[in-house]
């Protein structure tokens, strides 16, 4: 008997957590945090709906906290199995989990509850964490697990599980190929079952090939108006993509001079890890590096690691460009810059990634004229811009293309990790175009894989 239960990532973009049970042997694919507003985040404090002591292993698709963020809680609640991921994912995850611990501790104080996990739990679970290469197979009990390149962020993986003569594919988050620096998403030739993400399942990224030009326009507009360009940027991948493209714009003399600040200690530390794993980059980027190009550094770039350095940005007169976390404006240093510059009609806020429902970023993007930051009402008078092409997620056409090779062997596909409309539209597209039997599972649902 092989059973699959959707304990997270069903009916929501975040909180990926899938349990496979083969005659009592249990493994997890991902164990992430719920994100996107107070109600969602309260779920992170709830007990796991399974016994963590019974889990033999956790297999991790990638390092974003909505895929790894509850692994230390799993340890805290009794898990003592193994954790497996690619080499970059392990290094990134350790930094991201340590960074999240502080925010989760503050949330626990507000909820008057014990913390979800501690730094000690992070360190302990990292002692159980093993790194593997792409195409390497790990055998745990009745399960054989192989990692393939998802092309989403550096080290991200599609996970293929084989058990009871069946093949189950977990897409994780699939990449928006071709992406800056990252290798293309690998395709899987055949499978019996597939779980496919649907973050952008109802959308098409427009002008992906022009995202650098749109970034150039935003920088030029901010400098011309003597304003501030604020870019809420995820510390992982999005900041590095932007650095890569700004480096090309600076070296090509295509943008006017203005100081550029990376105001995120986490992004600075993650960027340093990138330099360990240049062999994971695509051939074009590797060629640039071999030619001597420091692909994420250029004149006018400032890394503000300390609080004092961050505050000093305020003393620099516009025009200036500030990249800071978090990417959805639901925390981090970007909030301080937004308080100062959202009311400024000369300034621009540029969104370059998905903004989850309930987040400050989504409210600004939806056109709210007044938002609350740190309890204070802030008028939004600045210009709002968005570049969807910088999303690290595959859009609907790419998702369909990724599924296409499997369509002849799939018994069923499950559409996960998307808002309701996005998942349902992708489900319908899969039925119409690929003739695949599909369903959008509900949270907590269990299916038998026959």
Report on the structure:
With 450 residues, the protein is an alpha/beta fold. The chain has two domains: 2-203 and 392-448, Ribonuclease Z/Hydroxyacylglutathione hydrolase-like (Metallo-beta-lactamase, Chain A); 208-390, Rossmann fold (3-Layer(aba) Sandwich), CATH 3.40.50.10890. Helices cover 30% and strands 23% of the residues. It has helices at 38-42, 65-68, 71-76, 87-111, 119-126, 211-224, 238-251, 265-274, 283-290, 307-312, 334-341, 360-365, 396-403, 420-434; strands at 2-8, 17-22, 25-29, 55-59, 82-86, 129-132, 137-140, 143-149, 157-163, 166-170, 193-197, 228-232, 260-262, 301-303, 320-324, 348-351, 370-373, 376-379, 383-386, 412-416, 438-439, 446-448. A seven-stranded mixed beta sheet has the order 6-5-4-3-2-1-22. Strands 7-8-9-10-11-20-21 form a seven-stranded mixed beta sheet, with helices on one face. Strands 14-13-15-12-16-19 form a six-stranded parallel beta sheet, with helices on both faces. Helix 4 packs antiparallel against helix 5. The radius of gyration is 21 Å and the shape is globular. The mean pLDDT is 94.
């Amino acid at each position: 008997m092989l059973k699959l239960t959707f304990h997270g990532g069903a009916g929501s973009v975040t909180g990926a957590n899938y349990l496979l049970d083969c005659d009592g042997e249990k493994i997890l694919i991902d164990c992430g945090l719920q994100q996107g507003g107070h109600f969602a985040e309260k779920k992170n404090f709830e007990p796991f709906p399974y016994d963590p002591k019974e889990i033999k292993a956790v297999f991790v698709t990638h390092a974003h906290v909505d895929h790894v963020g509850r692994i230390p809680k799993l340890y805290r609640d009794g898990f003592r199995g193994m954790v497996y991921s690619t080499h970059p994912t392990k290094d990134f995850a350790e930094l991201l989990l340590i960074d999240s611990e502080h925010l989760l501790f503050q949330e626990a104080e507000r909820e008057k509850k014990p913390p979800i996990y501690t730094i000690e739990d992070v360190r302990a679970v990292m002692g159980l964490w093993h790194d593997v290469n792409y195409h390497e197979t790990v055998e745990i009990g009745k399960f054989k697990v192989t990692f393939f390149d998802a092309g989403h962020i550096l080290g991200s993986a599609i996970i293929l599980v084989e058990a009871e003569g069946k093949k189950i594919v977990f897409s994780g988050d699939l990449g928006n190929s071709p992406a800056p620096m990252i290798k293309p998403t690998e395709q899987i030739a055949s499978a019996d079952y597939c779980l496919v993400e649907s973050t952008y399942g109802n959308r098409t990224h427009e002008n992906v090939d022009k995202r650098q030009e749109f970034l150039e326009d935003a920088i030029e507009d901010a400098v011309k108006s003597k304003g501030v360009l604020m870019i809420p940027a995820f510390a992982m991948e999005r900041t590095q993509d932007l650095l890569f493209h700004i480096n090309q714009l600076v070296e090509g003399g295509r943008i006017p001079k203005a100081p550029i600040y990376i105001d995120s200690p986490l992004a600075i530390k993650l960027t340093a890890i990138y330099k360990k794993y240049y062999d994971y980059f695509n051939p074009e980027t590797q060629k640039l590096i071999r030619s001597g190009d420091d692909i994420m550094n250029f004149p006018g770039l400032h890394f503000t690691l300390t609080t004092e350095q961050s505050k000093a940005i305020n003393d620099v007169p516009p025009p200036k460009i500030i990249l800071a976390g978090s990417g959805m404006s639901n925390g981090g240093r970007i909030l301080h810059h937004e308080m100062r510059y959202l009311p400024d009609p000369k300034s621009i806020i540029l969104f370059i990634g998905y903004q989850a429902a309930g987040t400050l970023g989504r409210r600004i993007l939806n056109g709210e004229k007044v938002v609350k930051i740190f309890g204070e009402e802030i008028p939004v008078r600045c210009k709002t811009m968005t570049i969807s092409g910088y999303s690290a997620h595959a859009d609907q056409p790419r998702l369909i293309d990724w599924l296409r090779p499997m369509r002849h062997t799939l018994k069923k596909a499950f559409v996960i990790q998307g808002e309701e409309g996005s998942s349902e539209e992708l489900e319908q597209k899969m039925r119409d175009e690929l003739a695949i039997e599909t369903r959008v599972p509900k949270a907590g649902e269990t299916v038998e894989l026959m």
